[in-house]
Amino acid sequence: MDRALYVAMTGAAQTLKAQAVNSHNLANASTVGFKAELAAQQAVAVDGPLMPTRVNTQLQGQGFDGSLGSIMQTGNPLDVALAPDRWLAVQAPDGSEAYTRAGDLQVGADGLLRNGGGHMVMGDGGPLSVPPNSQIAIGNDGTVTVVPLGQGPEAPVTVGRLKVVDATADQLERGSDGLMRARAGQTPEDASGAVMTSGAVESSNVNLAESMVTMIALARQFEMQVKLMRTAEQNDQASASLMRMG
């Protein structure tokens, strides 16, 4: 009976983890540029003495869904929607370079350009700053121009270019801070040409209907695994009772 109990117990634990992944996706269904996290369960043989018949259930991270979200027109000149396989370089909290498709940009009180997550946006030479009280425009190649306060639109000044890299989903991995980084051995190259569209953002690619169905399916799966644990316990008690009677 302990074999059935072991499988049900480890399966239930991993189902809870899968539910946490799905809940995280649902919570970010409205987050600009969010990519849904993927996960799958698989059976793994348990190593060690007296364990040849034991099978452990493990949750295997499958990376993230690299498909595009829908493009939402905002009319905000600071918003940018990245082209496919293009990623905006930002400075992570630990100071390293990371990547995101969240193009909801804004100018902070310190004059630095940041996205909606508060991460500093990188230019060719580091975090990009713009003069205060200036009119800002972003070209489809990432060039940032400003019209200083008191100047006419015929006198734009280029302050830098947003750093955008070319990388496919299998070249990147999500960090604990939610930002993407290059996998070991991968070096994303700088992208050129038309890399973005201004006045728009990419929505999350989380499929709400599919995630809700997954949530219900995982809840039912967990109930079945708990029921199997109870059944295994009852069978064990019944077997022990028969042995005492014998």
UniProtKB/TrEMBL annotation:
Which GO cellular component does the record give, naming just one? bacterial-type flagellum basal body, rod
Keywords assigned: Bacterial flagellum, Cell projection, Cilium, Flagellum
**InterPro entries registered for this protein in UniProt:** Flag_bb_rod_N, Flagellar_FlgE/F/G, Flg_bb/hook_C_dom, FlgE/F/G-like, LlgE_F_G-like_D1
Ranges for domain Flagellar basal-body/hook protein C-terminal come to 198-242
Where located?
Answer: Bacterial flagellum basal body
Top-level division of the source organism's lineage: Bacteria
Q: Which SUPFAM superfamilies match?
A: Flagellar hook protein flgE (SSF117143)
User: Which ranges carry the Flagellar basal body rod protein N-terminal domain?
Assistant: 5-35
> Locate the Flagellar hook protein FlgE/F/G-like D1 domain: which residues?
87-146
GO terms, biological process = bacterial-type flagellum-dependent swarming motility
Quaternary structure, per UniProt, is: The basal body constitutes a major portion of the flagellar organelle and consists of five rings (E,L,P,S, and M) mounted on a central rod. The rod consists of about 26 subunits of FlgG in the distal portion, and FlgB, FlgC and FlgF are thought to build up the proximal portion of the rod with about 6 subunits each.
Family recorded in the similarity comment: Belongs to the flagella basal body rod proteins family.
Q: What is this protein called?
A: Flagellar basal-body rod protein FlgF
